[in-house]
Automatic annotation (TrEMBL), chain A:
This is Acyl carrier protein. It comes from the Bacteria. One of its GO terms (biological process) is lipid A biosynthetic process. It comes from Devosia pacifica. It holds the Pfam family PP-binding. Its main location: cytoplasm. One of its GO terms (molecular function) is acyl carrier activity.
TrEMBL record, chain B:
Its EC number is 1.1.1.100. One of its GO terms (biological process) is fatty acid biosynthetic process. SUPFAM superfamilies: NAD(P)-binding Rossmann-fold domains. The keyword Oxidoreductase applies. This is 3-oxoacyl-[acyl-carrier-protein] reductase. It comes from Devosia pacifica. Gene3D superfamilies: NAD(P)-binding Rossmann-like Domain (3.40.50.720). It holds the Pfam family adh_short_C2. Pathway: Lipid metabolism; fatty acid biosynthesis. The active site is at residue 152. It catalyses: a (3R)-hydroxyacyl-[ACP] + NADP(+) = a 3-oxoacyl-[ACP] + NADPH + H(+). InterPro entries: 3oxo_ACP_reduc, KR_dom, NAD(P)-bd_dom_sf, Sc_DH/Rdtase_CS, SDR, SDR_fam. Residues 7-188 form the Ketoreductase domain. PANTHER family: 3-OXOACYL-(ACYL-CARRIER-PROTEIN) REDUCTASE, 3-OXOACYL-[ACYL-CARRIER-PROTEIN] REDUCTASE FABG.
Length: 78, 245
C-alpha cells in the first residue's frame, strides 16, 4: 500500500469524519465507517477527481470497503 | 432574506411567458441567469428585458443529446449552477381515447424526462458545493387532472413525485427540491381557451381572475432563496384558491 492508499484514506477520513485508524483494509464504508448510500456516491466522485479517472457505475457498486477502493484505483491508475 | 446575489441559475423555457418572468425575477433578486429555450429571438428579448449579462443556451428538450449538453454548458457559462428551474413545458391535448402515442411521448419527454436529465446532471456540482435549489414548474392539472390532458397531467404529476423522491435523497446535502403548481395563469396557453371555457374556469377560482406570471415567479424566488432553506419536497400551489390542497 502506497501513496494511493494514503490519498484514498485521506479522502475517506475527511469525508466521513472518522479516525484514520478505523480506515483499515476490510473496513466497509457503510457497515464500519458510518457512510450512507449518498456518502458512497460522493466518495466515488471524490476518488474520480483525486485520481482523474472515471469509475463506471457497475465498478462503483463493487467498491464496498477501503481495500476495494485502493485495489480498484491501483489498477485504474496503473 | 430573498437575496440571490452571487447565485447562478438556469431557467428552461425562458422564452415563454412564465419562464421569462421567472428569469427576470431571479435576476432582479441578484442571480445570474442562463436562459434556455428553443426560440433564440425570444430568449434574446428576455435577456434584454433583464438588462444584465445572460448566457443564452438554446436547447430542444425533446432531443436528449441536446438536453445532456445543457447543464454542462450552463456550468461553463456561469461558473457553476446553484438554481435549476425546470419550467419548460408543452401541451398536446387530446381526448384520452384519441390520444396518439406521439402526443403522449412528446409531452412526457419535454415535461418530465428532460427535467429528470437536467436535475440529475446538476446534482454532482450541487452536492460538492453543499447547496442547490431544484424547482419544477408543475401545474394544478397534475394534482386535479383535466379532461383532454392525460399526457400533460401525467407529466406534471410525475414532476411532483420525482421532486419528492429526489428531495428525500439530497436533503442532507442542503439541496432542496420543490415544485410550484400554477393554476390558470394568463399566458399564450390560456389565450387559446374559448369564452365558454374561460367562464367555466373563472367560476371555479375564488380569486375571480387569472393569475399572473409574476405571481408564479415570486414563488420561485422564494423557493430559491435562503428564506426557504427548510422547505423541501413541497408543492406550492399558486392558483387563486381553485384547489386548496
Amino acid at each position: 500500500m502506497s501513496d494511493i492508499a494514503d490519498r484514498v484514506r485521506k479522502i475517506v477520513v475527511e469525508h466521513l469524519n472518522v479516525d484514520a485508524e478505523k480506515v483499515t483494509e476490510k473496513a466497509s464504508f457503510i457497515d464500519d465507517l458510518g457512510a450512507d448510500s449518498l456518502d458512497q456516491v460522493e466518495l466515488v466522485m471524490a476518488f474520480e477527481e483525486e485520481f482523474s479517472v472515471e469509475i463506471p457505475d457497475d465498478a462503483a457498486e463493487q467498491i464496498q470497503t477501503f481495500g476495494d477502493a485502493v485495489t480498484f484505483l491501483q489498477k485504474a491508475v496503473g | 432574506m430573498f437575496d440571490l446575489s452571487g447565485k447562478k441559475a438556469l431557467v428552461t423555457g425562458a422564452s415563454g411567458g412564465i419562464g421569462r418572468e421567472i428569469a427576470k425575477a431571479l435576476a432582479a433578486a441578484g442571480a445570474t441567469v442562463a436562459l434556455s429555450g428553443t426560440r433564440v429571438g425570444a430568449l434574446e428579448d428576455t435577456a434584454s428585458a433583464i438588462g444584465k449579462e445572460c448566457p443564452i443556451l438554446p436547447c430542444n428538450l425533446s432531443n436528449l443529446d441536446e438536453v445532456d449538453r445543457l447543464v454542462p454548458a450552463a456550468e461553463d457559462a456561469l461558473g457553476g449552477l446553484d438554481i435549476l428551474v425546470n419550467n419548460a413545458g408543452m401541451t398536446r391535448d387530446n381526448l384520452f381515447m384519441r390520444m396518439k402515442n406521439e402526443e403522449w411521448d412528446e409531452v412526457l419527454a419535454v415535461n418530465l424526462t428532460a427535467a429528470f436529465h437536467l436535475s440529475r446532471a446538476c446534482l454532482r456540482g450541487m452536492m460538492k458545493r453543499r447547496f442547490g435549489r431544484i424547482i419544477g414548474i408543475s401545474s394544478v392539472v397534475g394534482v386535479m387532472g383535466n379532461p383532454g390532458q392525460g399526457n400533460y397531467a401525467a407529466s406534471k404529476a410525475g414532476l411532483i413525485g420525482m421532486s419528492k423522491a429526489l428531495a428525500h435523497e439530497v436533503a442532507s446535502r442542503n439541496i432542496t427540491v420543490n415544485t410550484v403548481a400554477p393554476g390558470f395563469i394568463g399566458s399564450a396557453m390560456t389565450d387559446e381557451l374559448n369564452e365558454k371555457q374561460r367562464q367555466d374556469i373563472m367560476s371555479t377560482i375564488p380569486a375571480g381572475r387569472l393569475g399572473t406570471a409574476e405571481e408564479v415567479a415570486g414563488c420561485v424566488v422564494f423557493l430559491a432563496s435562503d428564506a426557504a432553506g427548510y422547505v423541501t419536497g413541497h408543492t406550492l400551489n399558486v392558483n387563486g384558491g381553485m384547489a386548496m390542497i
